[in-house]
Structure formats: C-alpha cells, structure tokens
Amino acid sequence: MMVLEDLEVKGEEGSKMEIELKEKNGNEIVFIIRDAEVPFINAIRRIAMMEIPKIAIEDVNIVKNDSSMFDEVLAHRLGLTPLFSGAEAIEGLVFSEDCECEDYCPSCSVSFTLNKTGPGVVYSKDLSSTDSKIKSVFDTIPLLKLKDGEDVELEAVAKLGLGKEHAKWIPTTVCAYKQYPKITFNEDLEVDYGCADACPRGILKADKRSKKIKVNNIENCSMCKSCVRASENNYVDVGYEKDNFIFRLETDGSMTPEEVLLRACDVLDEKTEKFISFCKGGRT
Questions:
Q1: Which of 129, 140, 191, 250 would give a disulfide with 174, using CB separation of 3.0 to 4.6 Å?
Q2: Which residue stretches of the chain have pLDDT < 50?
Q3: For the chain, how many structural domains are there in total?
C-alpha cells in the first residue's frame, strides 16, 4: 500500500513537482500538488473515478419479496451497496468478459444470499457472502423493511467492473481538485473593511488596530469573489496559482484513498508505456 507523505518528484531540467499531505481522515485525504499542470491532475482524477477495478453486485435473482419495495428498487440498492474491493480482497478475480465460463463462476464473481423474515429492517450485514474477504463495507445500510409475516429471499452475484460502465463501480464519492487560491490587496488604496464582512467562509478578517485585512486558512477559499464584488474601491482581488492544486479524494470504503491513487498511477503508467512503445516502433 502506498504511504502518502511529503514527496518531491524531479524529472528533466526545470521540471519539478511536490506533493504535500494536508489532511487524512478515515476514507478521505486532502493533499497539495505544486508545479504541475491541469491535464496531468485531471488525468489522475478521471482514472481514479472511472478506471479502477471494483466489485459490486451485478445480477440479482429474487426468489421471494413480500415487502412493499419493488424488486427493481431492491436490486438497485443492492448494486450500490459498497463491497470491500482492496487488492487483497479481489486478488485472483477476473472481469467476467475475460473469463472462460458462460455466465459466472468463482473465478469472476462472488455470490451473496439474503433470507430474512419480518418484522424488522433488513440491513447490509444480513447479506451472506461466499467469500469472507468480500462483504459489505458498512453493516448498517438499510435495504428494506419487512412487516410481520413478510419474507425476502434472494441470490446476488457480484462482479468486477469499472466506473465508466456504471456508477456502482466508482470507488470514490468525492474526487476533485481546485487551483490554489491567491488573495491580494492593493496597498495603494484605502483599506476596505467591508470586503472582509462579505466573505461567506470567514477567510478574511478585518483588523482595524493594525489597519489590515488578514487572510486565514486560504485553502478553504472557494474563490466565489464575494469580497471582490463587495469592495467599493477594488481593494481586494481573488485569483489562483496556475500550477498549484488542492486535491480532495474520498472513497466509499471499498478501498483506501491511497490505494485508489496508487492504482490510478499504475493505469496512467500503463497508458504512457503504450505510447512509448508505439513511438519506438513497437506495437501496442
């Protein structure tokens, strides 16, 4: 597993990229990338969302459903229930289209069963898996509610997939970046304290004792420019640092954010290797 810490990457002369970890909390990670370009950052973002293999329930065979929930809705909820999809969990599994079986088998799928009788709420923890490593990430996701005497019985098959095929295979719940905010003041003008009051996030603080406006936690700035519009004399200006970015990534728990980033880098590396091979006269 990749351990994300302060990194420095150097390439050709004049090329330099730095990565600084700002925050890590459970399945969420925030880091700053300096001296990079938008296409590269966006490539990492798109691959992390769309091209990381993840396992999710694909086929559902409902034997009995006495609840008021339609079968299609129940199947949809099952498909969106996050399952552990770390490298260790899905080791040995192949995509169904690459498997030699006709429908599904242990090499390309994991089976689940659900058999409950009401009254009560049926939770994700009630799903029984044929593989102890692949199960629901959270035990308390409500699937449906059964009244007294109502039954639900079903079989479900989970398969590997990619986010570009369906949202249930997207490992991230948040995967976004923004360019690093930059706030400047025109020192030749009179201090406009009103622009600080207009900041909806409290980034700007008016300090009349020192006759200055202070900037607090600039990384939380959304660059909404409310302060710019509120300033009567154009005292403040909000922009961004072109080659610096704040990247935020949060997963659904199916895998860690570090693993998502590492896999995204591996996919990007594989794509670039194909271009290198092509340029050298080889075949991809």
A1: 250
A2: 1-12, 14
A3: 2
